[in-house]
Amino acid sequence: MQAPEETIKKLKAMRDDISHRIEAIEADVHHKKEPVEKDFAEQVTQRENEDVLNALDDESIQTLNQVNAALLRIERGEYGICEKCGEQIDPKRLEALPFATTCINCAE
Ligand SMILES: [Zn+2]
């Protein structure tokens, strides 16, 4: 299945957007690691912030991988095919989730 031009554009925009976000998060994490000479409560808060940022980072990286995988499938002409059952994924599902790899029936 050929991916519509719109979908390709959307996925590329997502890829750029997420890459920038990851860069921003990483810059933020590194910046916040510097001052450690604080009282315990502040250190805890700081660590919690880092955990949140790291979690965000992980999530963004995961999404980025999915977006890149979708772009790869487009190149191979495999876009929109369910990985599990080989059926076509509902275009409405792809519209909502352009990097979906499974049809609605096979989705976890
Ligand atoms: Zn399926």
Write the layout of secondary structure elements.
Blueprint: H1 5-33, H2 40-76, H3 91-96
Bound molecules: zinc ion (ZN).
Q: What is this entry, summarized?
A:
With 108 residues, the protein is mainly α.
Give the tags.
108 residues, mainly alpha, elongated, binds zinc ion
Structural features, described:
This protein is mostly helical and 108 residues long. It has a domain at 5-79. Helix content is 67%, strand content 0%. The protein contains 3 helices and no strands. The protein has helices spanning 5-33, 40-76, 91-96. The longest helix is centred in the middle third of the chain and has 37 residues, at 40-76. The protein is elongated. The mean pLDDT is 89. Zinc ion (ZN) binds next to loops.
| Number of separate strands | 0
Helix content: 55-70%
> How many helical stretches?
3
- Specify Rg, calculated over alpha carbons: 19 Å
Mean pLDDT over the full residue set: 89
Shape: elongated
Q: How far from one another are the termini?
A: 23 Å
Proportion of beta-strand residues: under 5%
Structural class: mainly alpha
- Uncertain runs with pLDDT below 50, 5 residues or more? none
- What does the main sheet amount to? none
Order of helices and strands: HHH
Bound molecules: zinc ion
